[in-house]
């Protein structure tokens, strides 16, 4: 069997390193790369992308858009990990557990937007309840999400793993409270909400892992709702999933 050729653009960053780590030992995958001095050279990236079956873009939003302007017409499958294309209907949204149409899009479309970390947890909780009609699309969600520091990238990892580190890093810290978090448009778009949730992300002194909490007031719902009903709705929605 011929190995699939995979090219990770931005393999030196936190996300790229993790993808490289997970794929590097697989015998069915051949990892491609540019020379180190050409890792930001768009034309050099295009040359390697022409040889690839799958390209991962692990870049900031603006850089992903610049690269897509050059490689977007190539036959390779592109999986983008930034927020640049997550609300673009021309792109597949990489959350197959949300339904058959998502699976079909991922299988047939060339370009796939990888879901955001906080967004994955929020959408996993909210989307089934909205689709079942248990909560209305105009429900005023308030959501907290506790996360490890690795999602903040190299700079934040360096802050938390420095010795000695600032005393305030030992306790959970809220951030991004201006309701302009980059994952909110994604959550609103995928869940079909008329308003974005109020979102309170919290970073804590551990490397990775996330706990998302979505509170629901039954008096604001259009249908009778209780804990057992929510539990059963989620179980039914994800009954065919081996991950959720």
Automatic annotation (TrEMBL):
<dbReference type="GO" id="GO:0003942">
    <property type="term" value="F:N-acetyl-gamma-glutamyl-phosphate reductase activity"/>
</dbReference>
<keyword id="KW-0521">NADP</keyword>
<keyword id="KW-0055">Arginine biosynthesis</keyword>
<feature type="domain" description="Semialdehyde dehydrogenase NAD-binding">
    <location>
        <begin position="5"/>
        <end position="106"/>
    </location>
</feature>
<dbReference type="GO" id="GO:0006526">
    <property type="term" value="P:L-arginine biosynthetic process"/>
</dbReference>
<keyword id="KW-0963">Cytoplasm</keyword>
<dbReference type="Pfam" id="PF01118">
    <property type="entry name" value="Semialdhyde_dh"/>
</dbReference>
<dbReference type="InterPro" id="IPR010136">
    <property type="entry name" value="AGPR_type-2"/>
</dbReference>
<dbReference type="InterPro" id="IPR050085">
    <property type="entry name" value="AGPR"/>
</dbReference>
<dbReference type="InterPro" id="IPR036291">
    <property type="entry name" value="NAD(P)-bd_dom_sf"/>
</dbReference>
<keyword id="KW-0560">Oxidoreductase</keyword>
<dbReference type="GO" id="GO:0051287">
    <property type="term" value="F:NAD binding"/>
</dbReference>
<dbReference type="InterPro" id="IPR000534">
    <property type="entry name" value="Semialdehyde_DH_NAD-bd"/>
</dbReference>
<dbReference type="Pfam" id="PF22698">
    <property type="entry name" value="Semialdhyde_dhC_1"/>
</dbReference>
<protein>
    <submittedName>
        <fullName>N-acetyl-gamma-glutamyl-phosphate reductase</fullName>
    </submittedName>
</protein>
<keyword id="KW-0028">Amino-acid biosynthesis</keyword>
<dbReference type="InterPro" id="IPR058924">
    <property type="entry name" value="AGPR_dimerisation_dom"/>
</dbReference>
<dbReference type="GO" id="GO:0005737">
    <property type="term" value="C:cytoplasm"/>
</dbReference>
């Amino acid at each position: 069997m011929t190995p699939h050729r995979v090219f990770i653009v931005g393999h030196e960053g936190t996300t790229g390193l993790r993808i490289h780590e997970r794929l590097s030992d697989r015998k069915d995958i051949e990892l491609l790369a540019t020379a180190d001095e050409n890792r930001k050279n768009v034309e050099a990236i295009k040359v390697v992308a022409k040889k690839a079956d799958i390209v991962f873009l692990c870049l900031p939003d603006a850089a992903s858009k610049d690269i897509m302007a050059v490689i977007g017409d190539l036959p390779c499958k592109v999986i983008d990990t930034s927020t640049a294309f997550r609300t673009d209907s021309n792109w597949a949204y990489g959350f197959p557990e949300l339904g058959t149409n998502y699976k079909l899009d991922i299988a047939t479309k060339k370009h796939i937007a990888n879901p955001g970390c906080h967004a994955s947890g929020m959408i996993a909780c909210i989307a089934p309840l909205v689709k079942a009609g248990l909560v209305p699309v105009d429900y005023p969600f308030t959501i907290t999400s506790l996360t490890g520091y690795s999602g903040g990238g190299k700079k934040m990892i360096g802050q938390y793993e420095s010795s000695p580190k600032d005393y305030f890093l030992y306790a959970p810290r809220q951030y991004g409270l201006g309701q302009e978090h980059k994952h909110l448009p994604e959550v609103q778009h995928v869940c079909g909400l008329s308003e974005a949730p109020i979102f309170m992300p919290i970073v804590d002194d551990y490397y990775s892992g996330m706990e998302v909490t979505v509170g629901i007031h039954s008096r604001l719902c259009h249908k009778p709702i209780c804990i057992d009903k929510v539990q059963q709705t989620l179980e039914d929605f994800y009954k065919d999933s081996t991950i959720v």
